[in-house]
Amino acid sequence: RTEHALVDFQRAQNWSAPIDAVAERLHSRPRRLRRDLAREGESFQQIRTRLRGELAAAYLLVTDLPITEVGYRVGFSEPGSFSRNFTEWAGLTPSQYRDRYKPDGARLAAASMLLSERTGA
């Protein structure tokens, strides 16, 4: 449920939705949401970062957009910040990720489906 709420915020271009807003949408309190997520082994920030990284990865594979444009589309105002964050998340730079996984048909199909679900494209 937390992921769905965060995806809704991301669709509205709110890439850093605060836990208070997500908890409110889920009819919960921030403290309880943090505790429930910790019980599941993931933090609110980890989920928010993972969802953003998954969308960026999908853009890299499905489109031929320049890497800076992919960064802008997932809410980064600085290209260097996007590259650093993506590399930390994926273990590869955005261009390395694109080069390595674009030829992978199954990964490309999954990325296409994810992009369609998250952006309506």
Percent of residues in helices: over 70%
- The structure class reads mainly alpha
Number of helices: 8
Silhouette: elongated
Give the tally of β-strands: 0
* SSE string, helices as H and strands as E: HHHHHHHH
Largest beta-sheet characterization: none
Q: Provide the low-confidence segments as ranges.
A: none
What proportion of the residues form beta strands (DSSP E)?
under 5%
- What is the straight-line distance between the termini? 23 Å
CA gyration radius, whole angstroms: 15 Å
Brief digest:
This protein has 121 residues and is an all-alpha fold.
Tell me what the structure shows.
The chain has 121 residues and is mainly α. The protein is built from eight helices and no strands. The protein is elongated. The protein starts with a helix and ends with a helix. The model has no long low-confidence stretch (mean pLDDT 91).
Observed structural traits:
121 residues; mainly alpha; elongated
